[in-house]
Write a structure and sequence with these properties.
The chain has about 280 residues and is mostly helical. It has a domain at about 10-100: 2-Layer Sandwich (Tetrahydropterin Synthase, Chain A), CATH 3.30.479. It is about 80% helix and about 5% strand. The protein contains five helices and four strands. Helix 2 packs across helix 4 (about 65-80).
């Protein structure tokens, strides 16, 4: 479907006087165009062309719903094209989009939007009432829950009281058991203390007997050692006397042997002398 509509707009356009390059472009434009209406047609063609190109890329709903954005896009596109001619949009006023007679699309779209708004309002009212009903139901449920919670809290309180009584009895029994264990440990400690004293006494008595026997044994050992030492002294004296006698005999025999050796050597020397004399 094709829809036709008009874009009522008033643009105040003129040369950019604060830029030398833009003034030069505008002068070139004026010098090429002999009549003013040719420039007017050129600018109008730019506005209409950019508007058509922009509208062609959008749906009619987007054009209608996004009027402010649509106007801004038109201004930006037109200004971009006018820059090449050194022109500037000093002011622009675009009125609400209007239908061409016989093509009342925007009127229909507006009515449709208004109807949707009314329907949405009705839906919001219905949802509000529904929410109020839900709140009432939720309150009733909450009261029921509160009563149930109160009952559970009372039961929990009774259970706690019972548990406290049971725990108290258990603790009392534990205290009595600990007291009995303490008394038993005390009696055991007393018995062990007496037994330890008796044991120490017996050990000391046994040690004294062992000490006396040890001293007797040491005395006997000392006597035996003295006797052994006397025997060793006697044996050593006899051995010394025997050794002295043996040493004397050995010395005598040694001297005799030395005399014989000296005699033999003298005889050997004499024989050598005779042999040498005899040739």
């Amino acid at each position: 479907r094709n829809y036709r509509s008009s874009l009522p707009a008033i643009f105040t356009i003129g040369p950019r006087i604060d830029d030398e390059d833009s003034l030069l472009r505008y002068a070139k434009l004026i010098s090429k165009e002999k009549h003013y209406h040719h420039v007017n047609e050129l600018v109008q063609g730019i506005i209409e062309g950019e508007t058509r190109v922009l509208v062609a890329s959008m749906t009619m709903e987007e054009v209608f719903k996004g009027t402010k954005e649509f106007k801004k896009e038109v201004f930006d596109k037109v200004q971009l094209e006018l820059n090449q001619f050194g022109l500037l949009i000093y002011d622009a006023n675009v009125k609400q989009l209007m239908d061409v007679p016989g093509h009342e699309y925007f009127s229909y779209l507006g009515q449709n939007t208004q109807q949707k708004a009314q329907n949405q309002a009705k839906i919001d009212v219905a949802e509000t009432k529904m929410k109020e009903a839900d709140v009432a139901e939720a309150n009733a449920k909450l009261q029921t829950k509160k009563a149930d919670w109160a009952r559970q809290a009372q039961l929990a309180k009774v259970e706690v009281t019972k548990a406290v009584a049971i725990r108290s009895g258990e603790l009392q029994r534990e205290v009595e058991r600990m007291n009995a264990m303490t008394q038993t440990e005390k009696l055991r400690a007393d018995f062990l203390s007496k037994a330890s004293v008796q044991y120490e006494t017996k050990v000391q008595e046994a040690n004294w007997d062992i000490y006396k026997k040890q001293k007797v044994a040491e005395a006997m050992l000392y006597q035996k050692e003295k006797e052994a030492e006397a025997q060793r002294a006697t044996a050593s004296a006899a051995l010394y006397s025997c050794q002295q006698t043996t040493d004397g005999e050995f010395y005598k025999k040694k001297k005799e042997a030395e005399g014989l050796v000296a005699l033999a050597e003298a005889q050997e020397a004499y024989l050598h002398t005779l042999l040498n004399a005899l040739g």
